[in-house]
Automatic annotation (TrEMBL):
Native organism taxonomy: Bacteria, Bacillati, Actinomycetota, Actinomycetes, Micrococcales
Domain Transcription regulator PadR N-terminal positions: 13-88
Protein name (Swiss-Prot/TrEMBL): PadR family transcriptional regulator
Cited SUPFAM superfamilies: Winged helix' DNA-binding domain
PANTHER family: TRANSCRIPTION REGULATOR, PADR-LIKE FAMILY, TRANSCRIPTIONAL REGULATOR YQJI
Superkingdom, natural source: Bacteria
Length: 211
């Protein structure tokens, strides 16, 4: 499997198998307990599917099976050398290469002007409250595991999320303050000078494409 083909779920699976061999159920439970399902869509089905594909591509291999009581038989997998190499290459690529992502919030912001001001403000206040709760919850979890000695290098993704959430919260506070004070006029018309600028640019671009 080429490094570019490793999905987010596959990358999480390979990362976890660096610690020890596991069966898919253990993988799913561990990822959920650590909160890594915020990084990718993690369901029992996606874990089993990803593990099967990783095995068929030689990135993991089965090392044994077991059965507990009436439960289905479980296959334990370990990382192969090819899996380590693919994992390292993909991780380095994602660390160093900015990627164009398409989160929903910027999309909603780009269209917010077209809905009623009161509806937009109510939605933004709801988001602000939810964001503050998220920040409190993740800060508590981060501080808790750090106080028990978990090395910082294992929490860099959480640190990044905390800074992102803090920045979003500060921006929302400023936006809501501007809406409350009237500094941001929801009904301000687009000035004719800007319309003229856009029209002139469109004409120039059309001329540039004339053969």
């Amino acid at each position: 499997m080429a490094r570019k083909d490793l999905s987010a779920a596959a990358l999480l699976l390979l990362g976890l198998l660096h610690e020890r061999p596991m069966h898919p159920y253990q993988v799913h439970q561990t990822l959920k307990q650590r909160g890594d399902d915020r990084l990718a869509s993690i369901t029992p089905g996606s874990v089993y599917h990803s593990m099967d594909r990783l095995a068929s591509d030689g990135l993991v291999e089965a090392v044994g099976t077991d059965r507990a009581g009436n439960r289905p038989q479980r296959t334990t997998y370990r990382l192969t050398e090819a899996g380590r190499e693919a994992f390292a290459a993909r991780t380095a690529l994602l660390l160093g290469e900015p990627r164009q992502e398409h989160p929903c919030f910027p999309l909603a912001l780009s269209q917010a002007h077209a809905i009623d001001r009161s509806v937009a403000v109510a939605a933004l206040r709801a988001r602000r409250a939810a964001t503050a709760e998220e920040l409190t919850a993740w800060s508590r979890r981060y501080d808790g595991v750090r106080s028990h000695g978990l090395p910082r290098r294992l929490l860099l993704d959480v640190e990044y999320d905390l800074h992102r959430i803090e920045s979003e919260l500060a921006w929302l506070d400023g936006l809501l303050a501007d809406l409350d004070s009237g500094a941001l006029d929801w009904d301000e018309p687009v000035p004719q000078s800007f319309r003229d600028f856009v029209a002139a640019r469109s004409r120039a671009q059309a001329t540039d494409h004339v053969p």
